[in-house]
Amino acid sequence: MKINANFHTHTTFCDGSDTPESVIKEAVRKGFTELGFSGHVDPGVSMDIPAYIREIKRLQEQYREDIDIIRGVELDNVYDPYAAEDTEYYIGSTHFVPVQGSDVWNRTVPYGTHRENQPDCDICGVDASVDLLHDHCRKYFHDDFYEMSERYYAFEALICDRMKPAFIGHFDLITRFNDLSKEDGGHFLDETSEKYLVPARKAMEKLAGYGIPFELNLGAVNRGRKKEAYPGTELLRYLRELGGEILISSDAHQKELLDGCFDEAIETAKGLGFRHVNILVREMKDSDDPELYREALNTRSDNGRRLFWKKLML
User: What is the pTM of this model?
Assistant: First the structure.
């Protein structure tokens, strides 16, 4: 089984290395049938959203005979969904944790009103740098990474209520630097301990109940930052026990990595008992079994209908 699609893709509009058009050409060369763009809308990355939307729309039309391009954004849990309305799907991602007492716990905020580099910002990032992560943990969480991860998962658990995403992005991003050596600032969490897993499982239980897929995100693996995809093995196994749905995403910031480690991810999913993965498509094919399709919640195709999740059997 081969996956010819990716829905977590970054370009030069945010922090990617390649223009959208060059990414499309690479996707076509690889034999992709679908490609979802997901520019960052978060407090750590600045993006010209109107220009991004215009360009993806232009490319959707230009390449419509070659590949189905789906227009999305990766929306951070901090911001409200109106930040990028003219899109077909959101990835719901948590890159930041609001500090104690922040109004962001209770409401989403307009794009640009909370920026990571603002003085006295009341949110703290978990993936900018290992030094900043440790600084935030000391300043806001009593130098206790289990307290920090518990607050991260409490915020992550709100993502469907706050944002209405099509799928959940890199669920356990709090572990971004955990694979580093202790000397380099890593190994700050035992990802097999109940102290870590209990709040993570609680968040996963809540989100899985919405019927929203979780991505098996390979971005950190592809870039040599982590040994395992997000979610890690313990949490991915628990998602399977919950009956949760998955898709496989490369979180590509370089066009060459659009399908990076997909084969390994398929084997991981099979080994944990998943029987299928999902891809986003616009239409059901008449030649396919209709049982392979279900409407993709919180999607909004330009034709006024929802997109579909299509099962690829493993």
Answer: 0.96
